[in-house]
């Protein structure tokens, strides 16, 4: 299995339950890349951890659900509906449902993204 196939499989597979882990260590930095790993994925929502190498970006998008972002390493620039937010280690922000948003790595950073789909009005 190639490393690309392995990374794809890791992204789609939930982490092992009832096993402690150090969240910042479950994903590495890879030069010129953005990596994501699924912590838990359900029809009612998901939690994902991502790493961004310096200079990497995620293009503008939107989601039908509120998304909570927490920075677990480094700092990130997040643009929500045209407003820039710089988040430092330990800080979090809620991206409102349907808001246009993008991410830019002025330096390496890791984040946890939490989407809760149930109960959305």
Automatic annotation (TrEMBL):
Give the SUPFAM superfamilies listed for this entry.
RmlC-like cupins (SSF51182)
The domain of life is Bacteria
List the protein's name.
Cupin
**Native source organism of the sequence:** Dyadobacter psychrotolerans
State the taxonomy lineage.
Bacteria, Pseudomonadati, Bacteroidota, Cytophagia, Cytophagales
- Record InterPro entries: RmlC-like_jellyroll, RmlC_Cupin_sf
